[in-house]
Amino acid sequence: IDDPVEIIEGSLKAQKKLIEGFKGNPDASPELVKQSFEPKHVALSLTGEPITYPRFNELCKEFHKRGISTFVVTNGQYPDAIENLDIVTQLYISVDAPNKEILKAVDKPLFSDYYERLKKSLIAMSKKTFRKAIRLTLVKDQNMTDLEGYKELILLGNPDFIEVKAYMWVGASRERLGREHLPSMH
Q: pLDDT (tens digit, 9 = 90+) per residue, 112-155?
């Protein structure tokens, strides 16, 4: 298990290496380049499930000690980990469907009790005192239905924010879905 301090130091080093080239770019704002060398926010999300890291609370506390806020995104399949979260700046739970049947079709879950896990995670979220958000990623012709189902799940989680975003046709999802699944504002 990697040490939280090593993870942070490695991440900051990689960030600096990534943006180093902007120093010599005449079109880059010197002030913004300077700011980018001292990140103030970290998103713990995307590939994998960040809250399964056994030292997750230590990691977040270390980020906070350095003045870096933590935004954590989970798919709600590890309710015990959510119950055990000590401190994050903002917790997002992705609610990818309004009911059990659509969630199975959209997420292809690993656990047989996936829907119960999501609901337990939302209940655990509702008890947290840090900022909380439910993220709805809408996929045209897939999960844009059953508003009452979404309403029930949102009420269960009692979030401070609801973030509605459109599915983007990028990455591995292009193997399963087509451009036609991008919802429009209409």
A: 999 999 999 999 999 999 999 999 999 999 999 999 999 999 99
Q: Is the entire prediction scored with pTM above 0.85?
A: yes
Spatial CB neighbours of 65, under 8 Å, sequence gap ≥ 6: none
Assign residue 146 a region: left if phi > 0, alpha if psi is -120 to 50, beta otherwise? Answer: left
- Write the CB contacts of 72 (distance below 8 Å, at least 6 apart in sequence): 44, 45, 50, 51, 60, 85, 88, 90, 91, 92
Mean pLDDT value across the chain: 93
Residue 39 corresponds to which amino acid? P
Which amino acid, one-letter code, is at 20?
E
Which phi and psi angles does 69 have, rounded to 5°?
-75, 155
Residue 113, token pair as written in the block: 């009790």
Cβ-in-10-Å burial (0-12, 13-18, 19+) of 69 comes to middle
Task: Render the burial of 137-166: b for 16+ CB within 10 Å, e for the rest.
Answer: bbbbebbbeeeebbeebbebbebeeeeeeb
